[in-house]
Write a structure and sequence with these properties.
The chain is mainly α and about 100 residues long. It has four helices and two strands; from the N terminus they run H-H-E-E-H-H.
Amino acid sequence: MTATIWWTIAGCTVVTAVIKGVGPLALGGRDIPPRLTGVIALMAPALLAALVVTSTFAVGDQWRVGAHTVGVAVGGVILWRRGPLVLAVAVAVAVTAGLRAIG
């Protein structure tokens, strides 16, 4: 089992290195078109949003709403209202811990 995990990690490492190397080789020093630059700029926020949604709503192989979901929602509202990041994280942790202690 452990060897399979390490071979998987090694394979992912090689594939990532190849993917990163193909970009500069394919472009050959040319400038990227502005439309493509816009798409590339939006890829990181989209991936981050997908990771946040998955970690917020997924419990194992099921989708659930629990204390952690409410905590993240409260933190998101604080950030949406332009509150400080540290406050949003602290309140999210407190809300999650409080709800878990209650139920």
